[in-house]
């Protein structure tokens, strides 16, 4: 006997969105999952298709290219991916970046980047973790120095989810300052044709083998002042507050989906023996 659960918060609109998610995963991701595990990434095309179907950044307002919906829709996607054992995309990290822009970006930054995150033409990543500092911001070594025209970024990051495919990265960095107090900021980096930026190894992991996780290197990467998230140096710590809690909720939905998949699979196995 198998068990099917329907959350109480499902309504007709969520049901229709769930049907779209199921079709997308079954036709686009499940058949290619084995190869993605071998390659260590799913490629850009799957992100473009997800964006075209409106599966990304669903709770971003419509004026910035999102669906203007609520978290239920994102929960549906994470649950379905968990239930099917799919790890090749990380829409969670992608969505968190969108919320950094929504909550802390300038109006120009929101208008420029949010529609492209929502339609999948940019894959997003967050560069926080470092080899010797983990995700402890006060311990990071990556630093930006202002030369009068550009912020010159130097350092490295590791274990960066979506790092290999990323086309838009939010880089957490210290900033050289005349003040005795350390300052942090988040810099916006578009990876295409960016001198000084390079992607290192795709890291091998025990699990999540289809999800790209990479090292990133910044060697005198020159960024104009409009690439400071929020347009002002020294506020780099504040935007961190909302990210971890949102990602925790995503993991809860993914884990719930994994549990459902295991229960359903065990039920089918018992019926066949």
Strand content: 15-25%
Q: In terms of structural class, how would the helical and strand content be classed?
A: alpha/beta
Identify low-pLDDT runs: none
Q: What is the radius of gyration?
A: 20 Å
Helix proportion: 25-40%
**Major sheet:** 7 strands, mixed
User: With helices defined by DSSP (H or I, 4 residues minimum), what is the helix count?
Assistant: 7
Structure commentary:
With 273 residues, this protein is of the alpha/beta class. The chain contains seven helices and seven strands, in the order ααααααβββββββα. Helix 1 packs parallel to helix 4. It is globular. The two termini are 12 Å apart.
Chain-wise SSE layout:
Layout: H1 12-29, H2 33-39, H3 44-52, H4 71-83, H5 91-104, H6 107-118, E1 124-127, E2 143-146, E3 151-161, E4 168-175, E5 183-190, E6 197-202, E7 213-223, H7 242-272
Parallel strand pairs: 1-4, 2-4
Antiparallel strand pairs: 2-3, 3-7, 4-5, 6-7
Helix pairs in contact: 1-4, 4-7, 5-6, 5-7
Summed up:
The protein has seven helices and seven strands; from the N terminus they run ααααααβββββββα. It has 273 residues and is of the alpha/beta class. Strands 1, 2, 3, 4, 5, 6 and 7 form a seven-stranded mixed β-sheet that branches.
Key attributes of the depicted protein:
globular; 7 helices; 273 residues
């Amino acid at each position: 006997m198998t068990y099917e659960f329907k959350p109480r918060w499902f309504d007709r609109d969520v049901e229709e969105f769930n049907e779209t998610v199921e079709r997308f995963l079954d036709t686009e991701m499940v058949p290619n999952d084995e190869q993605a595990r071998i390659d260590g990434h799913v490629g850009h095309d799957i992100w473009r298709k997800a964006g075209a179907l409106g599966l990304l950044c669903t709770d971003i307002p419509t004026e910035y290219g999102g669906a203007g919906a609520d978290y239920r829709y994102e929960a549906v996607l994470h649950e379905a991916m968990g239930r099917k054992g799919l790890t090749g995309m990380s829409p969670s990290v992608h969505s968190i970046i969108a919320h950094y822009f929504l909550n802390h970006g300038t109006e120009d930054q929101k208008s420029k980047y949010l529609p492209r995150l929502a339609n999948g033409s940019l894959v997003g990543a967050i560069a926080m973790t470092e080899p010797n500092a983990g995700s402890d911001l006060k311990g990071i070594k990556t630093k930006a120095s202002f030369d009068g025209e550009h912020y010159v970024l130097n350092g490295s990051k590791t274990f960066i989810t979506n790092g290999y495919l990323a086309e838009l990265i939010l880089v957490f960095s210290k900033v050289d300052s005349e003040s005795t107090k350390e300052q942090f900021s988040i810099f916006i980096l578009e990876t295409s044709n960016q001198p000084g930026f390079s992607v290192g190894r795709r890291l091998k992991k025990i699990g999540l083998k289809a999800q790209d996780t990479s090292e990133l290197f910044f060697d005198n990467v020159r960024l104009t002042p409009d690439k400071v998230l929020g347009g002002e140096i020294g506020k780099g710590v504040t935007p961190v507050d909302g990210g971890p809690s949102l990602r925790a909720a995503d993991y809860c939905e993914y884990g719930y989906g994994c549990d459902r998949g295991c229960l359903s699979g065990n039920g089918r196995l018992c019926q066949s023996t």
